[in-house]
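Q: For a teaching session next week I want to show students how multiple molecules come together into a single three-dimensional assembly. I've collected the sequence lines for a complex. Could you give me the predicted C-alpha coordinates for the whole thing so I can convert them for display?
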Amino acid sequence: KRVQLRLTEFYRSA
Amino acid sequence: MLELRLVQGSLLKKVLESIKDLVNDANFDFSSSGFSLQSMDSSHVALVALLLKSEGFEHYRCDRNTSMGMNLGNMSKMLKCAGNDDIITIKGDDGSDTVTFMFESPTQDKIADFEMKLMDIDSEHLGIPEAEYHAIVKMPSAEFARICKDLASIGDTVVISVTKEGVKFSTRGDIGTANIVLRQNTTVDKPEDATVIEMNEPVSMTFALRYMNSFTKATPLSNTVTISMSPDLPVVVEYKIAEMGYVRFYLAPKMEE
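A: Of course. Below is the structure for the complete assembly, covering every listed component.
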Protein backbone atom coordinates (compact mmCIF):
# COMPACT_ATOMS: atom_id res chain seq x y z
CA LYS A 1 0.00 0.00 0.00
CA ARG A 2 1.25 3.46 -0.87
CA VAL A 3 1.22 6.14 1.79
CA GLN A 4 1.28 9.87 1.27
CA LEU A 5 4.37 11.43 2.83
CA ARG A 6 4.46 14.97 4.17
CA LEU A 7 6.88 17.73 3.30
CA THR A 8 7.87 18.01 6.93
CA GLU A 9 9.45 14.55 6.57
CA PHE A 10 11.90 16.05 4.05
CA TYR A 11 12.44 19.64 5.13
CA ARG A 12 13.01 21.24 8.51
CA SER A 13 11.34 24.35 9.81
CA ALA A 14 13.47 27.39 9.05
CA MET B 1 6.05 52.62 3.54
CA LEU B 2 5.40 50.08 0.83
CA GLU B 3 4.42 50.85 -2.75
CA LEU B 4 4.64 48.45 -5.68
CA ARG B 5 3.31 49.34 -9.09
CA LEU B 6 2.84 46.56 -11.59
CA VAL B 7 1.88 47.67 -15.10
CA GLN B 8 1.04 44.12 -16.12
CA GLY B 9 -1.54 43.73 -13.38
CA SER B 10 -2.97 40.59 -14.96
CA LEU B 11 0.17 38.82 -13.82
CA LEU B 12 -0.76 39.26 -10.16
CA LYS B 13 -4.30 38.10 -10.90
CA LYS B 14 -2.90 34.95 -12.53
CA VAL B 15 -0.54 34.32 -9.62
CA LEU B 16 -3.42 34.45 -7.16
CA GLU B 17 -5.58 32.17 -9.28
CA SER B 18 -2.75 29.66 -9.40
CA ILE B 19 -2.29 29.36 -5.64
CA LYS B 20 -5.52 30.31 -3.89
CA ASP B 21 -7.09 26.86 -4.01
CA LEU B 22 -4.01 25.17 -2.60
CA VAL B 23 -3.33 27.58 0.25
CA ASN B 24 -5.92 29.52 2.25
CA ASP B 25 -3.74 32.23 3.70
CA ALA B 26 -0.11 33.21 3.63
CA ASN B 27 2.40 35.77 4.77
CA PHE B 28 3.72 37.97 1.96
CA ASP B 29 7.29 38.90 2.76
CA PHE B 30 8.31 42.24 1.25
CA SER B 31 11.91 43.41 1.03
CA SER B 32 13.81 45.86 -1.13
CA SER B 33 14.65 43.10 -3.63
CA GLY B 34 11.08 41.93 -4.17
CA PHE B 35 8.42 39.92 -2.46
CA SER B 36 8.02 36.27 -1.72
CA LEU B 37 5.62 33.87 -0.16
CA GLN B 38 5.96 30.34 1.12
CA SER B 39 3.04 28.34 2.37
CA MET B 40 2.02 24.71 2.78
CA ASP B 41 -1.43 23.33 2.12
CA SER B 42 -3.39 22.35 5.21
CA SER B 43 -2.29 18.70 5.00
CA HIS B 44 1.44 19.64 4.73
CA VAL B 45 1.74 17.55 1.56
CA ALA B 46 2.24 20.41 -0.91
CA LEU B 47 3.90 23.78 -0.72
CA VAL B 48 3.89 26.88 -2.88
CA ALA B 49 6.87 29.23 -3.10
CA LEU B 50 6.42 32.48 -4.98
CA LEU B 51 9.05 35.06 -5.88
CA LEU B 52 8.44 38.35 -7.68
CA LYS B 53 11.59 40.45 -7.97
CA SER B 54 11.50 44.22 -7.69
CA GLU B 55 12.99 44.65 -11.20
CA GLY B 56 9.72 43.44 -12.68
CA PHE B 57 7.80 46.35 -11.17
CA GLU B 58 7.42 49.77 -12.73
CA HIS B 59 7.91 51.31 -9.35
CA TYR B 60 9.01 49.46 -6.23
CA ARG B 61 9.47 51.00 -2.84
CA CYS B 62 9.90 49.02 0.36
CA ASP B 63 11.56 51.02 3.13
CA ARG B 64 11.94 48.11 5.50
CA ASN B 65 11.31 44.39 5.42
CA THR B 66 7.74 43.64 6.30
CA SER B 67 5.46 40.65 6.34
CA MET B 68 1.74 40.88 5.65
CA GLY B 69 -0.67 38.05 6.37
CA MET B 70 -3.35 37.80 3.72
CA ASN B 71 -6.29 35.53 3.12
CA LEU B 72 -5.74 34.44 -0.48
CA GLY B 73 -9.43 33.88 -1.15
CA ASN B 74 -10.20 37.46 -0.10
CA MET B 75 -7.23 38.81 -2.02
CA SER B 76 -8.38 36.95 -5.11
CA LYS B 77 -11.89 38.45 -4.73
CA MET B 78 -10.37 41.90 -4.72
CA LEU B 79 -7.97 41.30 -7.62
CA LYS B 80 -10.82 39.91 -9.71
CA CYS B 81 -12.23 43.44 -9.59
CA ALA B 82 -9.18 44.66 -11.55
CA GLY B 83 -9.44 44.59 -15.33
CA ASN B 84 -6.99 42.43 -17.22
CA ASP B 85 -5.30 45.51 -18.70
CA ASP B 86 -5.26 47.42 -15.41
CA ILE B 87 -2.15 48.61 -13.66
CA ILE B 88 -2.15 47.30 -10.08
CA THR B 89 -0.46 49.10 -7.19
CA ILE B 90 -0.05 47.49 -3.77
CA LYS B 91 0.28 49.98 -0.93
CA GLY B 92 0.92 49.50 2.75
CA ASP B 93 1.91 51.61 5.74
CA ASP B 94 4.07 50.48 8.63
CA GLY B 95 1.99 49.15 11.46
CA SER B 96 -1.27 49.28 9.51
CA ASP B 97 -3.64 46.33 9.65
CA THR B 98 -4.75 46.81 6.06
CA VAL B 99 -3.27 46.71 2.57
CA THR B 100 -4.57 48.72 -0.38
CA PHE B 101 -4.84 47.51 -3.94
CA MET B 102 -5.21 50.29 -6.48
CA PHE B 103 -6.40 49.53 -10.00
CA GLU B 104 -5.87 52.00 -12.84
CA SER B 105 -7.31 51.49 -16.30
CA PRO B 106 -4.70 51.84 -19.08
CA THR B 107 -6.24 55.15 -20.18
CA GLN B 108 -6.31 56.44 -16.58
CA ASP B 109 -10.04 57.16 -16.80
CA LYS B 110 -10.97 54.72 -14.04
CA ILE B 111 -9.18 54.45 -10.74
CA ALA B 112 -10.31 52.17 -7.95
CA ASP B 113 -8.88 51.34 -4.57
CA PHE B 114 -9.72 48.32 -2.48
CA GLU B 115 -8.55 48.10 1.10
CA MET B 116 -8.19 44.61 2.53
CA LYS B 117 -7.85 43.62 6.16
CA LEU B 118 -4.64 41.83 7.04
CA MET B 119 -4.46 38.88 9.41
CA ASP B 120 -1.98 37.38 11.81
CA ILE B 121 -0.79 34.10 10.36
CA ASP B 122 1.27 31.71 12.35
CA SER B 123 2.78 29.83 9.43
CA GLU B 124 5.48 27.23 9.48
CA HIS B 125 8.36 28.20 7.19
CA LEU B 126 10.39 25.32 5.77
CA GLY B 127 14.04 25.58 4.88
CA ILE B 128 14.38 24.15 1.38
CA PRO B 129 18.02 23.66 0.43
CA GLU B 130 19.20 23.81 -3.17
CA ALA B 131 19.34 20.25 -4.46
CA GLU B 132 20.83 18.33 -7.34
CA TYR B 133 17.99 16.52 -9.04
CA HIS B 134 18.29 13.16 -10.82
CA ALA B 135 16.08 14.35 -13.65
CA ILE B 136 14.70 17.67 -14.86
CA VAL B 137 12.02 17.69 -17.53
CA LYS B 138 11.10 20.92 -19.28
CA MET B 139 7.95 20.74 -21.34
CA PRO B 140 5.07 22.88 -22.62
CA SER B 141 2.90 23.79 -19.64
CA ALA B 142 -0.32 23.21 -21.57
CA GLU B 143 0.82 19.67 -22.41
CA PHE B 144 1.54 18.94 -18.75
CA ALA B 145 -1.89 20.30 -17.78
CA ARG B 146 -3.56 18.14 -20.41
CA ILE B 147 -1.77 15.01 -19.21
CA CYS B 148 -2.66 15.59 -15.56
CA LYS B 149 -6.31 16.25 -16.44
CA ASP B 150 -6.55 13.19 -18.69
CA LEU B 151 -4.92 10.84 -16.18
CA ALA B 152 -7.11 12.11 -13.33
CA SER B 153 -10.15 10.77 -15.19
CA ILE B 154 -8.63 7.27 -14.93
CA GLY B 155 -6.79 7.15 -11.59
CA ASP B 156 -5.86 9.05 -8.44
CA THR B 157 -2.08 8.84 -8.64
CA VAL B 158 0.50 9.36 -11.36
CA VAL B 159 3.80 7.54 -11.66
CA ILE B 160 6.31 9.81 -13.38
CA SER B 161 9.28 7.87 -14.74
CA VAL B 162 12.24 9.44 -16.47
CA THR B 163 14.63 7.29 -18.48
CA LYS B 164 16.84 8.07 -21.42
CA GLU B 165 13.90 7.00 -23.62
CA GLY B 166 11.74 9.83 -22.35
CA VAL B 167 9.33 10.73 -19.58
CA LYS B 168 6.38 8.46 -18.86
CA PHE B 169 3.22 9.43 -16.98
CA SER B 170 1.20 6.39 -15.84
CA THR B 171 -1.92 5.80 -13.84
CA ARG B 172 -4.28 2.98 -13.03
CA GLY B 173 -7.83 2.95 -11.79
CA ASP B 174 -10.96 0.79 -11.61
CA ILE B 175 -11.63 1.11 -15.33
CA GLY B 176 -8.10 0.40 -16.54
CA THR B 177 -4.66 1.90 -17.00
CA ALA B 178 -3.04 4.72 -18.98
CA ASN B 179 0.52 5.46 -20.03
CA ILE B 180 1.65 8.62 -21.79
CA VAL B 181 5.24 8.83 -22.99
CA LEU B 182 6.89 12.02 -24.15
CA ARG B 183 10.20 11.79 -25.94
CA GLN B 184 12.76 14.53 -25.96
CA ASN B 185 11.81 16.78 -28.83
CA THR B 186 13.94 19.81 -29.49
CA THR B 187 13.35 20.08 -33.25
CA VAL B 188 10.37 22.39 -32.92
CA ASP B 189 9.70 25.80 -34.47
CA LYS B 190 9.29 27.54 -31.12
CA PRO B 191 11.57 26.77 -28.16
CA GLU B 192 8.60 26.79 -25.76
CA ASP B 193 7.15 23.78 -27.61
CA ALA B 194 10.21 21.64 -26.86
CA THR B 195 10.38 18.77 -24.41
CA VAL B 196 13.86 18.68 -22.94
CA ILE B 197 14.98 15.90 -20.62
CA GLU B 198 18.09 16.34 -18.51
CA MET B 199 18.77 13.05 -16.77
CA ASN B 200 21.66 12.11 -14.54
CA GLU B 201 20.01 8.90 -13.35
CA PRO B 202 16.64 7.28 -14.11
CA VAL B 203 13.96 8.09 -11.56
CA SER B 204 10.41 6.90 -10.98
CA MET B 205 8.08 8.37 -8.36
CA THR B 206 4.40 8.38 -7.47
CA PHE B 207 2.31 11.48 -6.74
CA ALA B 208 -1.30 12.36 -6.02
CA LEU B 209 -2.95 13.71 -9.18
CA ARG B 210 -5.23 15.96 -7.17
CA TYR B 211 -2.27 18.15 -6.24
CA MET B 212 -0.66 18.01 -9.67
CA ASN B 213 -3.92 19.21 -11.18
CA SER B 214 -4.05 22.03 -8.68
CA PHE B 215 -0.52 23.11 -9.70
CA THR B 216 -1.55 23.32 -13.35
CA LYS B 217 -3.69 26.35 -12.48
CA ALA B 218 -0.41 28.22 -12.95
CA THR B 219 -0.37 27.29 -16.66
CA PRO B 220 -1.38 30.83 -17.80
CA LEU B 221 1.78 32.18 -16.15
CA SER B 222 4.24 30.40 -18.40
CA ASN B 223 4.41 28.51 -21.69
CA THR B 224 6.75 25.98 -20.14
CA VAL B 225 6.97 24.05 -16.89
CA THR B 226 9.92 22.24 -15.36
CA ILE B 227 9.54 19.12 -13.27
CA SER B 228 12.54 18.27 -11.08
CA MET B 229 12.76 14.85 -9.45
CA SER B 230 15.04 12.89 -7.16
CA PRO B 231 13.98 9.65 -5.49
CA ASP B 232 14.46 10.96 -1.96
CA LEU B 233 12.97 14.43 -2.37
CA PRO B 234 9.62 16.09 -3.08
CA VAL B 235 9.06 16.90 -6.76
CA VAL B 236 9.37 20.56 -7.78
CA VAL B 237 7.00 21.84 -10.44
CA GLU B 238 8.14 25.29 -11.52
CA TYR B 239 6.44 27.94 -13.63
CA LYS B 240 8.82 30.79 -14.42
CA ILE B 241 7.33 34.25 -14.57
CA ALA B 242 9.16 36.09 -17.36
CA GLU B 243 11.74 38.60 -16.09
CA MET B 244 10.24 38.53 -12.61
CA GLY B 245 10.53 35.29 -10.74
CA TYR B 246 8.61 32.06 -10.37
CA VAL B 247 5.84 30.06 -8.79
CA ARG B 248 7.19 26.74 -7.52
CA PHE B 249 5.13 23.90 -6.15
CA TYR B 250 6.67 21.18 -4.01
CA LEU B 251 4.85 17.89 -3.57
CA ALA B 252 5.77 15.03 -1.26
CA PRO B 253 5.69 11.63 -2.97
CA LYS B 254 3.59 8.60 -2.17
CA MET B 255 5.80 5.73 -1.08
CA GLU B 256 5.36 2.00 -0.76
CA GLU B 257 4.86 1.21 2.93
